[in-house]
Design goal:
The chain is α/β, with parallel strands linked by helices. Helix content is 28%, strand content 26%.
Length: 178
Amino acid sequence: MCDKCFSELKVTFQKEKIVGIELLSIFEYNEAMKTILFTYKGLGDIELRNVFLERYSLYLKFKYRNYLLVPAPSTLESESIKGFNHVEAMFSCINKNIVKLLHKKESFKQSDLSFKERQNVHKKIEIIDGERLRNKKVLIIDDLKTTGATIKAIIELITPFSPKKIKVLTVVATKVNT
């Protein structure tokens, strides 16, 4: 991505906590980011995968070295339509140690859920082979943090397996306050 186009993105490195867990989001959700995310996810343009984190990959590799990356779940249907898992592809530039342990019990798109429905997303996600997280440093990764409900649900699923540490990294965060 050229410098001019990149300058349209709003880099924030916003830090917050969700149920006491550190969350770092690199960008704020604005019109430029909305367009790029749609082209990447909605139209399946995998060539955009490195646009999001490439400029910060050395910093993120260092900050999250020795972490297992646990992506937020997507549906097999959306992966087969695009031909790739968009979250895994985005984050592969910082760590190849990505473990898919989370699955959606039913097919749904977060963007189709109301705020109230998002608060019950924990009922729609399950963890498989969570023992792999025991005594490990875990980095939950996702492309977009809106209400934080999915991240909270993932933290609740992971915590019983006693990871050494849990952190969260998202590419983008909206300004929605809950």
